[in-house]
Specification:
By secondary structure, the chain is mainly alpha-helical. It has 8 helices and no strands.
Amino acid sequence: MKFFFKFISALFHPLWLPFLGSVIYFLVTPRFLPEAIVKAKLLGISVLSIFIPICIFFLLKNLKIISSVHLKTYTERKIPLMLYILIFMSIKNFVLGDISQSELYFYFSNWIYACFIALCLCYLKIKASLHLMASSLLVGFIISISFLYQTSFYWFIGICIALTGLVATARLYLKAHTVNELLWGVLSGLAPYSLLFFYT
């Protein structure tokens, strides 16, 4: 069982979900984009949101700024979250600059807001679950595009919510987080979408 929950935690790691959300967007969007542009966007997103953070994490670990890639304490999370905010700003402004009115553009904007909330919580000595933050951002994104496109993605939303629950169970089983930390993670991920729906 422990191996299974470790696999779930790795499979739904926050590192992969920005790219996964991007793939989902390009699969379901009614907007026409040439295949070459889609591939270029996905390549840029994967390099900035996956490969560069992996290199940064290993650099920070070698410099002993963090003890592991799991970022077990709120103190260790501050610098990675700051860097993540810069990375998502780069994706938003440079990779997605020419499709700045797309839903994907606002998805990465919400990643910036969520990371900022998680960073502020670190200064309040609260460790929000980044796994749950990322999963909640993905669920919020799918709900928002379902609402915007007036398309029934209910089954997909249901699957994503169930998987989010599975991730939460995995994090609790592995004793990586408390229930409160999981709730803070969910709130960090859903707060930007709550504001979006409030003002639209």
